[in-house]
């Protein structure tokens, strides 16, 4: 009886808080400024953007509140012309949008796959012990440190159709017989984008995987070597399974980044339909055409796609992103 | 200088109950040791008393005053941690004075109290050093010093010796015992998994198993009259011999327990057990003979002096009268 | 490392290839930045001339100098504010058990991951409402969207690794959570703060979309926008020399920082990424 009184009465008594209650209260106070900030700069704008996608807002009406609620018309709208023919309008029936979706997905899958494989290779090299490893690691960090805009410009210059060094090298090696307009031609624009992205982001991937590699105890390799197991077998049977969590997390981070890619494509291949992604198309709609309704509808769709992807990935891969359980 | 009472104390983390209803009274100035295998709840008990963990149900009283919801700093406790938990960026002096600084104690009093504790522990020449400049043993002393300057009613030790090497461990054990003698008013609670530490330091020992108290008593009570098979096996080194089956049935019990030192070599005529020596350990002052009497594990027999029995010797053994422990099917003693 | 000679050669060949691929584009940019006139249009691997002219041209523009100042101000203010809010928040997330903690952590990670474009129109409205369009504060505010969750996330992982017993010793000594953060943890967290701050700084320094959207006048631009919009007399004539010079100017400090803090950066990236 006395125990019931002491434990259950304390929260309501409220005079003195016990340690746990004090800490939880402090925690809420510590979190409050961050949460308020995120509500203002992230949640509210997100809510407004989604709201815009249900209105006919344009650059002229966005600030004066004269835009009108039009429901899902930005997404899909059935229009019956006076002569009776039915036409569908809206983002979901827009072939430019689907082209951008396809470009984004294509880019994300290929770039993340390439970066994972190359990143794994680089990580394996960096994990080996050899002279000058520190220097190599430093060199590998350079692409990562260079701003995307700068790397877009640098590679834009190197991939230039007339004066670019890449064409020059390939011509000298007789890999091609005439210069290629890498960024301008629709056949190669995506390749150009992929080259730059892989160059810039593989280091990030390699470092994440390397960290995972370094958590595998060395004795494991040594005992495998003593048992005379072939290194390749060790790699498939020991290293790769142990790396799985590290790779899964790295892949999801990269994939999320790839799905929202904007600056590289905006700058490297500005006019190309074969590389335009969801972010770029949505931006063009918003800023260049001033169609805030349709542009917001596109960005909302991208948001939904990314959210769906994350949920799916967490469910399938059972990734512990929060790190709580480790 | 506090009398501590635990009444029906329980602790659970979610659905898992770690302390399953503990009643215990620790007397003023007593040195109480919590001992048990890992996962038995001994550290949780200490943390409940310290206030670092919240009691799920039940009452905890210090000097008859309910302290369930009192924060650790207000309970008048001091704690020595397993890893010493010194603040790495503060000097020894600041480490010891941190609590007083937060209390806004006057500079002079702070200095006096730190100095006094430092002298007591012979670390007064280290006050300006950082923890990383100290040896393990010195760090341990600083941790104890930090606890002393708090002038606590209750002194809590959480496996304080487990990070020290064997020689230092014995030495520090002696110092803690001395500390207990000097601070007669202060109640001390000490957690360890090492039964030797428990036996040598404790006024009373509390043996825990799976979140419940198995037995509370003085070291000799636990040694002589273990309240269960578990306590019998846990206290004493080498572990008590347990015999089952026909041998036990002869004594009307399920398990017969007999300590290594309570078996003597007998004549063939009045031998209870016979067997060959299969292994022997010579400790110099004593030796242990492992005798296979055909009842599972070999029987360990402790003999004084140097080892003089070659392996393979056939021995006749018998228990010293009055020293056998009989346990029933519920692992409880039959008296 | 491989043991047979053939594979050892292959291994070193691989190492050399990695280094060349990683470093060559930047080397080429540096080389180009020192070339002018017709030399610039001759693809060559070794430098043929050396001139500071491109640098003089870029630094001579008042707008470019103010872009650099803008970028420095915006990135450092953003990072400072983010760290200020993140230290206490990450303590709560790493050290206190409360209901909904995992969900909150996932939400924070989610915010740092979501596409900037998704908030662009709403943020545009907010920026205008606050009257900070075309001002550095617009960017400081919008960069908080990704720097704040990122710093909270990384600091939470660092904070989790600090020993529990030190915190408990402080609690027994009578320290409140605020004292624990300021007097006990902060002194131990300096390296982590430097790392996290640096990573967030790089993120803010490199940001492009918001900077492009929320600035209009030349002297309000940040460095990435300035470089992106650096143009010649006509659209066809991209001024490659000055662009490369500008690129080198804004990249060299970053590379130096990254090389100095190499190990810490790797630790920070890992704290933000691998945890499984």
Features of the shown structure:
heterotrimer, A: 326 residues, mainly alpha, MetI-like fold, two-stranded antiparallel ribbon, 12 helices, 67% helix, globular, disordered N terminus, B: 335 residues, alpha+beta, Rossmann fold, OB fold (Dihydrolipoamide Acetyltransferase, E2P), 2 domains, six-stranded mixed β-sheet
Walkthrough of the structure:
The complex is a heterotrimer of chains A (326), B (335) and C (276). Chain A has helices spanning 2-13, 19-52, 95-127, 133-145, 148-158, 165-172, 189-214, 218-226, 231-259, 263-268, 278-288, 292-317; strands at 77-80, 86-89. By secondary structure, chain A is mainly α. Chain A has a domain at 100-317: MetI-like (MetI-like fold). In chain A, a hairpin with a 5-residue loop joins strand 1 and strand 2. In chain A, helix 2 (19-52) packs across helix 12, helix 4 crosses helix 7 (189-214) and helix 7 (189-214) packs across helix 9 (231-259). The radius of gyration of chain A is 27 Å and the shape is globular. By secondary structure, chain B is an alpha+beta fold. Chain B has 2 domains: 4-234, P-loop containing nucleotide triphosphate hydrolases (Rossmann fold); 241-327, Nucleic acid-binding proteins (OB fold (Dihydrolipoamide Acetyltransferase, E2P), Beta Barrel), CATH 2.40.50. Chain B is built from 9 helices and 18 strands. Chain B has helices at 42-50, 92-103, 107-120, 136-149, 166-182, 195-201, 219-224, 229-234, 245-249; strands at residues 4-13, 16-26, 31-35, 57-62, 65-66, 77-80, 154-158, 187-192, 204-209, 212-217, 241-243, 255-258, 263-265, 273-282, 286-292, 299-304, 314-319, 325-327. A 6-stranded mixed beta sheet of chain B has the order 6-7-8-3-9-10, with helices on both faces. In chain B, strands 13-17-14-15-16 form a 5-stranded antiparallel beta sheet, with no helix packed on it. In chain B, helix 5 (166-182) links the parallel strand 7 (154-158) and strand 8. In chain B, helix 2 (92-103) crosses helix 3 and helix 2 packs parallel to helix 4. The radius of gyration of chain B is 24 Å and the shape is globular. The mean pLDDT of chain B is 91. The longest helix of chain C has 34 residues, at 62-95. The model of chain C has no long low-confidence stretch (mean pLDDT 88). The relative contact order of chain C is 0.13. Helices cover 75% and strands 0% of the residues of chain C. Chain C has 276 residues and is mainly α. Chain C has helices spanning 5-33, 53-60, 62-95, 101-113, 117-129, 136-161, 164-172, 177-206, 209-214, 223-228, 240-260, 262-272. In chain C, helix 1 packs across helix 11 (240-260). Chains in contact: A-B, A-C, B-C.
